[in-house]
Amino acid sequence: MAESAAPPGSAAAARAAADAPESAVRDPADGDGLARGPAAGIASSKQGVEEPGRPDLSVVVPLYNEEASLPHLIEQLLGALRPLPQSFELVLVDDGSRDGTPALLRDQAERVPELVAVLLRRNYGQTAAMAAGFDVSRGAVIVTLDGDLQNDPADIPLLLRRLEEGSLDLVSGWRHQRQDAALSRLLPSLLANRLIGSVTGVKLHDYGCSLKAYRRELVSDLNLYGELHRFLPALAFIEGARIGEIQVNHHPRRYGKSKYGIDRTFRVLMDLLTIWFMKRFLTRPMHGFGFLGLLCLGFGLATALWLVGEKLLLGSDIGNRPLLLMAVLSILSGVQLFCFGLLGELQMRTYHESQGRPIYRVRATLRGRHTSGDGSTTATAAVLPR
Ligand code: UDP
Ligand code: MG
Is the CB of 224 under 6 A from ligand 1? Predict the structure, then answer.
């Protein structure tokens, strides 16, 4: 129980295996998602309907040097989750901490039956730690939160209820009374939220809140790199997810200190650019690069022609004209942009075809009723989510 990190390379297979059997049960389009009580769509394995040993809910928490918060975190999570009808597991990922976090996790894994402790070999960053947690988790719904007690585990049932009632794929927390420094945190965050909203097209108040609930099939479709954990709703949106938001509590950091400074603003901007490009041109990079290439090439050729005309008709000396430099640069840039576009097209095909990633996502496939040979009607309104 203590060390259950999947070996590298097996993560995708483990995810695929974990996905297959349960998706039909949870498809929101099967009509019973809304009819049942709050969060009842995932409250099944305690009632023996789902695959035995597989929890309804996985709570994934990345931890980097959080030894002081960890005992309280586990206590609060157990306090919030044990009264729920859903079965659950706590996937706590140590992201190469240098303090007592790994030792504490080893110790707690012996005592807490719901705990799955994943100890990473070194510090990979919050995104990778979350990805490791996703890969190991088995729940039909995955909830993420920070390990520094800034998020409130008592909000988890509210997220689950919203997920079910709204037939959503992702519910994001909104720290409406955020307890962080005004100038270094709240202001950049306010601007970032506005910018992210307009660039990605996902309208949320708070993208930076780690407290979120996801359906497993959505998480399986998301590939995380760099620090893209901040853009999970945007990535989910690209995958066609239905996204909702609820107000959640937020507390000041009690122990330790934040792992991020103001420098993250720059990284967020760069990531935003990546997301913008992916959203617009993921399956058609040539449309982006090709258009720019055409503009550059057109401008360069026209300028060059003009200069040639001047030289031939008027006999002007064009060797030292800045316009000549501009024409040459534009033609070269245009050719390069075209080549980028072509390479992008090849890369995009490799990306999709090597992983068997379709360029679309199916929410449900509904087949009509068949009439069997003996005249009786069999209800085969099959719901095939993927
Ligand atoms: N974290 C992590 N690896 C890192 C940095 C952070 O696992 O390299 C974890 C950290 O322990 C915390 C969460 O990510 O549980 C959010 O980090 P932090 O509280 O420092 O971010 P902030 O709340 O200041 O945005
Ligand atoms: Mg924090």
Answer: no
Give the ligand whose atoms come closest to the C-alpha of residue 62.
1
pLDDT digits (tens, 9 = 90+) for 292-340: 999 999 999 999 999 999 999 999 999 999 999 999 999 999 999 999 9
The rounded distance, in Å, linking the Cα atoms of 308 and 311 is 5
pLDDT for 223 equals 87
- Is there an atom of ligand 1 within 6 Å of 66 CB? yes
Q: Degrees (nearest 5) of the Cα angle 127, 152, 25?
A: 70
Percent with pLDDT over 90 in the chain: 64
Question: Taking the mean position of all CA atoms in its chain, how far away is CA 373?
Answer: 47
Domain count, the chain: 2
The answer as to whether 386 is a domain residue is no
Phi-psi region of 9 (alpha: psi -120 to 50; beta: other; left: phi over 0): left
Residue ranges of the chain with pLDDT lower than 70?
1-52, 370-386
Give the structural domain span for 340: 285-354
Its pTM stands at 0.79
Please check whether residue 309 lies inside any domain of the structure. Answer: yes
Domain end (from 281, 297, 319) = 281
* Nearest atom (ligand 1) to Cα of 147: 15
Name which residue sits closest to atom 22 of ligand 1, judged by CA. 258
Domain CATH number, residue 173: 3.90.550.10
Pocket perturbation via mutation, ligand 1, pick of 148, 151, 207 by most ligand atoms within 8 A of CB: 148
- Is 258 near ligand 1, meaning CB less than 6 Å away? yes
Pocket test for ligand 1, best of 259, 265, 267, 268 (most atoms within 8 A of CB): 259
Out of 281, 300, 332, a domain closes at 281
Q: Which ligand is nearest to the CA of 101?
A: 1
Alpha helix segments (H runs only) across the chain: 11-19, 23-26, 70-81, 101-111, 126-136, 156-165, 187-200, 216-221, 232-238, 264-281, 285-309, 322-355
Q: Are residues 258 and 162 in the same domain?
A: yes
